[in-house]
Design brief:
By secondary structure, the chain is of the alpha/beta class. It has 3 domains: 2-86, no CATH class; 93-128 and 140-337, Endonuclease Chain A (Endonuclease, Chain A), CATH 3.30.870.10; 349-511, Endonuclease, Chain A, CATH 3.30.870.10. Helix content is 46%, strand content 17%. The strands form 3 sheets. Strands 9-16-15-14-10-11-12-17 form an 8-stranded mixed sheet, with helices on both faces. The chain has a 7-stranded mixed sheet with strand order 1-8-6-5-2-3-4, with helices on both faces. Strands 7-13 form a two-stranded parallel sheet. The protein is globular. The model has no long low-confidence stretch (mean pLDDT 88).
Length: 512
């Protein structure tokens, strides 16, 4: 009874109920008008057809087009209303313009060193093309003089985070999707408070939707009262908005401009297995030390300036450069290129990084992903690579966090296995990692799931690495994870769920 009451009075339930009532009211009102006035129903049907034609000509994924077309043509009144409310996979215009301004103001500080580009081009022309894509279409340069360290589980990453946070002398920037009170967050919060009292510039951005069920409504006020500057991305209000479709899914920690962390790990106890939810929780992350952390610093400050509504600070970014705070020479460890993906443009950077790695693979590609909900382009690339003799292996969870999403993930197995892709389910529990490693040379670790939300709707980030120490660390972790996972067979696929349910879920996958 206590759990039921807690749920009924939670912010998630109250705000969600308010939005559902608004959706029901809008849909009901349109339906009532349509049933009462034939001319209105005819107008809506005509507008629905025009909407479908408009969608068909948009520069969006064909799967989106198909899902929305079926919904709108099947139930024109309801489908049109839902599309008007949630169909646009972009931010509200005002926020979109703010991000564009932040990028313009800070673009001059994102120029790469010509000698770094020349060195990569001379090392491997094909690999260089992957990096050039990130520079030209994501806007982030490649670096040398950066050490990399990969962490195969959240517990190890958390320990290093604590160590590095305690060393902070000038600034700490954090940007996270989920924050939840517990041992992990409390220990980090204690350090943040201590550092803020000592004069360190401490700032935090969190996603209100991601933390809706874990933080109180005005949590940012509590942090500000403790001396920690805090802003909230996409504050969740009880009103219908297309902005609800877009979330800040990034995980970024920057310390004094020279040390940075990213990966799948949020600030919550299940990520370090202090709280058991779905068996053993496996997540991964990477730490950078060196010049490449500059890209994460700029990523954070761009987001911060948009949340604050001012780009003034972006005019003086140079003062956050690592060399102002780090007197030792940075280690050179291959080539490192942090990158960010946004829903503000027509460029699916996260997916294209994955596709470039798969399409240029010669020997193998090993992949960790919690959700395998892929479009035709990704399916084609994975299958073609396997058919061409590349050893393609994918690890998904053995214990799911979302049962319907897991059923949808499994619906893709058989086609992949038929083409030679090897699928593993992580039997100890839930794997939340988002990692690729290829040919002992290239790896990427970040926040980007292989599903429509991550690839098309959310702010995401990652690190692309070539011939860095972390690349082989990712490979060793992959081989160890295969050994602790169950390989999926075609016979097993046929007993995993009803084909009809899976077919319906795949049809609506872009809208989930």
């Amino acid at each position: 009874m206590q759990k039921i009451l807690k749920c009924l009075f939670s912010r998630l339930f109250i705000v969600g109920l308010a939005i559902l009532i608004q959706i029901a009211w809008v849909v009901g009102f349109i339906y009532l008008l349509g049933s009462k006035y034939q001319w209105f129903a005819t107008v809506v049907e005509i507008l629905s057809i025009l909407a479908v034609l408009w969608i068909a000509n948009k520069r969006i994924n064909p799967s989106y087009k198909l899902a929305w077309t079926i919904l709108i043509l099947s139930v024109p009144l309801v489908g049109a209303a839902i599309y008007l409310m949630f169909g646009e996979s972009r931010l509200a215009k005002e926020m979109e313009e703010s991000f564009a301004m932040a990028n313009r103001v800070s673009q001059d500080v994102m120029k790469e060193q010509p000698e770094d580009r020349r060195a990569l081009r001379e090392t491997d022309l094909q690999i260089n093309k992957q990096s050039v894509y990130l520079r030209d279409y994501a806007g982030f340069p490649v670096y040398r003089n950066t050490a990399t360290e990969y962490f195969p589980i959240g517990e190890l990453l958390y320990q290093r985070m604590i160590e590095e946070l305690k060393k902070a002398e000038h600034f700490i920037f954090l940007e996270y999707f989920i924050i939840n009170n517990g041992e992990m967050w409390q220990s980090i919060l204690d350090i943040l408070e201590e550092k803020a009292r000592a004069g360190v510039d401490v700032r935090l951005v969190y996603d209100d939707m991601g933390s809706l069920n874990t933080l109180p409504a005005r949590f940012y006020e509590e942090l500000r009262s403790r001396g920690i500057q805090c802003e909230v991305f996409n504050r969740f209000r009880p009103m219908i908005s297309v902005v609800l479709n877009n979330r800040d899914h990034r995980k970024i920690m920057v310390i004094d401009g020279h040390t940075g962390f990213t990966g799948g790990i949020n600030l919550s106890d299940e990520y370090i297995n202090k709280k058991v939810r779905f068996g053993y929780w496996k997540d991964t992350g990477v730490m950078l030390k060196g010049e490449a952390v500059w890209s994460f610093t700029v990523m954070f400050l761009r987001m911060w300036s948009v949340m604050k509504g001012s780009t003034d600070e972006l005019l003086h970014l140079e003062r956050y450069r690592a060399h102002y705070y780090y007197i030792e020479k940075f280690e050179e460890d291959g080539f490192v290129q942090p990158y960010s993906d946004t829903p503000l443009d027509h460029e699916t950077v996260g997916e294209n990084v994955y596709l470039n790695i798969i399409n240029q693979a010669k020997q193998y590609v090993y992949i960790f992903t919690p959700y395998l909900i892929i479009d035709n382009e990704m399916m084609t690339s994975l299958c073609l690579a396997a058919k061409s003799g590349v050893d393609v292996r994918i690890v998904t969870p053995g214990i799911p966090d979302k049962k319907l999403v897991f059923l949808l993930t499994r619906s893709y197995y058989e086609q992949l296995i038929d083409s030679g892709v090897r699928i593993y389910e992580y039997t100890p529990g839930f794997i939340h990692a988002k990692s690729f490693v290829c040919d002992d040379e290239v790896a990427t670790v970040g926040t980007i799931n292989m599903d429509y939300r991550s690839l098309y709707l959310h702010f995401e980030c990652g690190v692309w690495m070539y011939r860095s120490k972390a690349v082989m660390q990712v490979k060793r972790d992959a081989l160890d994870t295969f050994a602790h996972s169950r390989e999926v067979t075609k016979e097993y696929c046929r007993n995993m769920g009803t084909r009809l349910t899976q077919s319906l879920l795949r049809l609506m996958a872009p809208m989930l």
